[in-house]
Amino acid sequence: FAESGSCGDSEMQCKNGVCIDSDKLCDGIRDCPEGEDETLEKCAPFTCQSFAYRCAYGACIEGKAACNGTVECHDGSDESYALCGGIRKKGSGVRPTPKATEKPTTQTALQIGNKCQIPANLANAIITNVYLGTSIAVGSSVQANVLVNFA
């Protein structure tokens, strides 16, 4: 970690001023005290490597981590009922230090005019319109200012 206010080109500055290496961005592990390195806003524009599992908020973790009984995604989406079908391997429930995959490699523009594009590579995500309760298809677009929920 670098000192506050002196972040380099390959670093991200946390809200508290601490700099973290950009390799720690969207890896399933909260490195910033407030978790801003593991948010939908930061992670959604990226694409994970083919061998990785993509958390609902966009982070990339080891591919075999889904439904293994241990939460590796910061939001728990790798152990969600919808993904695992209620059947999970027995785990201790204790979260060990996860082994992170390489950082996401591709950034995709999400805004199209007055609409936002839901990334097409969110194969494991369940997306709903918060106000209407309706499902939103992966890869489709939604009007600006529509609140959606990723699970």
- Specify the structural class: mainly beta
Report the strand count.
Answer: 11
Which fold name is given in CATH as the topology of the largest domain? Low-density Lipoprotein Receptor
Runs in which pLDDT lies below 50 for 5 or more consecutive residues are 92-96
Annotation field: number of helices: 2
- The CATH C-level class name of the largest domain: Few Secondary Structures
| Structural domain count | 2
What oligomeric state do these chains adopt? single chain
Can you tell me the overall shape? globular
Mean pLDDT rating: 78
| CATH level-4 homologous superfamily of the largest domain | Low-density Lipoprotein Receptor
The strands making up the biggest β-sheet line up spatially as: 7-8-10
CATH architecture of the largest domain: Irregular
Rg measurement, Å? 16 Å
> What profile does the largest beta sheet have?
3 strands, antiparallel
Instruction: Give the terminus-to-terminus CA distance.
Output: 31 Å
Disulfide bonds: 7-19, 14-32, 48-60, 55-73
Keywords: Disulfide bond, Lipoprotein, Membrane, Receptor, Repeat, Transmembrane, Transmembrane helix
Pfam families: Ldl_recept_a
InterPro entries: LDL_receptor-like_sf, LDLR, LDLR_class-A_CS, LDrepeatLR_classA_rpt
Describe this entry's structure for a reader.
It is found in: Endomembrane system; Membrane. Pfam families: Ldl_recept_a. This is Low-density lipoprotein receptor. With 151 residues, the chain is mainly beta. The protein contains 2 helices and 11 strands. The protein folds into 2 domains: 11-84, Low-density Lipoprotein Receptor (Irregular); 106-150, no CATH class. Mean pLDDT is 78; it is low at 92-96. It has helices at 40-43, 81-84; strands spanning 11-13, 19-21, 46-47, 52-54, 60-62, 106-107, 111-112, 115-117, 127-129, 141-143, 148-150. A 3-stranded antiparallel sheet has the order 7-8-10, with no helix packed on it. β4 (52-54) and β5 (60-62) form a beta hairpin. Helix content is 5%, strand content 20%.
